[in-house]
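Structure tokens please, single chain.
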Amino acid sequence: MFGSGKDKSTPAVAHAAQAGASSKQIDTLIAQQCTLEGDLTTQNSIKVDGHIQGTLRAEGRAIIGETGVVKGDVHAADLLVLGRLEGNVFAQRLHLQATANIHGNITTESLQVDPGARYHGSVSMKDDGATVVPFAAPGAAAAAEPAAGRAAKG
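Here you go.
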């Protein structure tokens, strides 16, 4: 009766537990029917199946799902794109799956593009000595650019 030892979890819960054990954990989910207007910053992983209009910054892994749409720049350590992105990408690692569609410039150290993926813009690959800083504070990159320009001119 009480000590049967039989697993009583529902199939959905059991499936979610199995999926979580075999895949990377998602800490934040923007669901398919959700729309977020404004900048979003997370120190963990995030998956976007809905819409974000604004800058997305993720210290962890960011996934733009097949139904996901981001209209703004994305800064992430590890970015997987299956959906649509209208903005620039700054990522240490970027993987565009077959359903990905990007309109914007890409700056990355590692790029994987599956057949069928589309991007419109330029790609800048950083050398071994340089690193992409995906999680810089807003305005930090803009402040660094003029200083670098002065050093090159003077």
